[in-house]
Amino acid sequence: MIYRCENGESTDRLAEVIRRGSAPDGGLYYISDIPDVSDLLYGDSVVLQSGHGGYNDFVVKILERMLPDEAPGISWGELIDSAYDFAPSLHALESEYVLELFHGPSCAFKDFGARFLARYLEADCRRRDEKLVILTATSGDTGSAVGQAFAGSDAIDVVILFPRGRISHLQEKQLTTIGGNVHAIEVDGSFDDCQRMVKRIFADQSLSSGISLSSANSINLGRLIPQMLYYLYAAARLSADGCDAPVFCVPSGNFGNLTAGVMGYMAGMRVSGFIAATNRNDVVPEYLQSGHFQPRPSVETISNAMDVGSPSNFPRLTRLYSDDYARVRSHIAGYAVSDEHTRETMRTYAERHGYLACPHTAVGLAASAHHRNANLAPSEATFVTLGTAHPAKFPDIVEQATQETPEAPERLSRVLRLPSQADTMDADVGALATWLRERFGR
Q: Which residues 6+ apart lie within 8 Å of 249 measured at CB?
């Protein structure tokens, strides 16, 4: 694959792209010429087994086809087996599926990208005999997934910025109780402020001089490539069961997950379209209606991990369609879901299906139902909503909506008993630069 950035520079080396995180011009890397892997997804020769072993075997085949010479000093099989002792799970409801992506260590879909990225960078650092600092911002789930993925690394330190009072108690505990090489910073501002600070640090090399920095946000293609893989896996499993060309509904905040799905489509995955499901932070559904992209400050909702007013991956998403608005609009539908509708959807699925959904997944289920009821997809299309987080990560919201308390896996309940540790900071990039130089400068 070829990776390009805004100023026209390009590289064919994945290690360079992942290590840098953002492009040299401070913007995003884009993939062009994604290889077609449709023959690995469809047909009698495709063998798919359940469980993480079957998932790992499948994605290794994809990586060996797409990126045959890009493994970081270890084989793709070694990397994937060390990253994943969990797998996606397709949960069938009456007329749709939920692709559950929350069976990993932090109980959120971001475990897939974070664990891949961590194992890749650790292997690459060992190969280079170098140290690295990961700088990332979180609106909720990224921080815990990234922190736990890199925890204990002797080659990589992780710095996570999170907005004060705007993530759930459990999300905060997950990222502030790791310690060691994982450093949490509580910012007096919004996620957009955290994201702006991180972007400024990467764009202005004088702010981070002497520090080897990379990012674990979804600006890093090392997050999106592994997320693309679970779309391919789901499409192949559905096709084997006679459900071809699904509609994927994606709860969306920073739009990395939807971008990864479109990357899968570009790689030969058959789909009947995508649905961008957002909460009140609806700049992309608004764009899909008007053709105008107008970022604005984010607003707080009960689906807090999606509270993003200026999604970083939007330019990357439209670039996959050659920035052709008509193509984007013909392939992606967008819906904004209110908190009230989100709660109603959580209650409905609990009562009708006995299924507890986190508020983010519920936003997707609501948007999927709207699209399906409006008959905007082929009548035979299968609808798949991405289940992005375990409902036990949001126990108060789920209980208020459904009158049921989700049972927490031990890996979640354990962190509530641990002491928290975080620095505090104003939403000031200069303060962040000073903090980084004092701890990691050479």
A: 274, 275, 277, 364, 365, 367, 368, 371, 383, 384, 385, 386
Rounded to two decimals, what is the model's pTM?
A: 0.91
User: Of all helices (H) and strands (E), which one includes residue 316?
Assistant: helix 314-319
Domain boundaries, the chain: 88-106+223-409
Pick the CATH number of 88-106+223-409 from 2.40.110.10, 3.90.1640.30, 1.10.300.10, 3.40.50.1100: 3.40.50.1100
Taking all residues of the chain, what is their mean pLDDT, rounded to a whole number? 92
Q: How far is CA 421 from the centre of its chain?
A: 25
Q: How far apart are CA 60 and CA 65, in angstroms?
A: 9
Handedness of CA 122, 127, 131, 133 (dihedral sign): negative
What's the rounded Cα separation, in Å, for the pair 234 and 139?
Answer: 26
- Alpha-carbon gap, residue 12 to 3, rounded angstroms: 6
The strand order across the sheet containing 89-92 reads 89-92, 97-100, 383-387, 247-251, 273-278, 332-336
Please write the tens of the pLDDT for every residue from 286-332.
Answer: 999 999 999 999 999 999 889 999 998 999 999 999 999 999 999 99
Q: What is the pLDDT of residues 190-211, one digit of tens each?
A: 988 998 999 889 888 787 778 8
Token pair for 357: 């959904």
Token pair 């970022």 in the structure block, residue = 295
Alpha-carbon span 9 to 5, nearest angstrom = 6
Q: Mean pLDDT across the stretch 66-77?
A: 94
Residues 382/238, Cβ–Cβ less than 8 Å: yes
What pLDDT, in 10s, does the model give residues 80-131? 999 999 999 999 998 899 999 999 999 999 999 999 999 999 999 999 898 9
